[in-house]
Specification:
By secondary structure, the chain is mainly alpha-helical. It is built from three helices and no strands. The chain has one domain. It is elongated.
Length: about 100
């Protein structure tokens, strides 16, 4: 099994987070445009899944940039709650398992 350096792992995680956050941000944009056009929408569960997978910052930024889902408590409370949980779990992992 190949051993990866700390810098390689950090680079891979950073790249993943950039990509997943861009995807979440774009999905909020796409869903907003579809809503304005009265077209088929992206499922809310898909948006939450992207946030849980690490795209919570992109989802939050997209929500406020495009003024999309900002009246739904499920999103205005849910996305930040996911982000806080991710930060807490990351800190816990870094200090207790690394």
């Amino acid at each position: 099994m190949e051993q990866y350096s700390t810098s390689q792992i950090i680079f891979a995680v950073a790249l993943y987070l950039i990509v997943i956050n861009l995807i979440a941000f774009l999905m909020m944009y796409i869903d907003k445009r579809k809503a304005e056009q009265g077209k088929w929408r992206i499922e809310e569960s898909t948006l939450f899944t992207l946030a849980i997978m690490g795209g919570s910052v992109g989802a939050i930024l997209g929500m406020y940039k495009f003024r999309h889902k900002t009246k739904k408590l499920r999103f205005t409370i849910g996305f930040p709650t996911i982000l806080i949980a991710q930060i807490v779990l990351s800190i816990y992992y870094i200090f207790f398992y690394h």
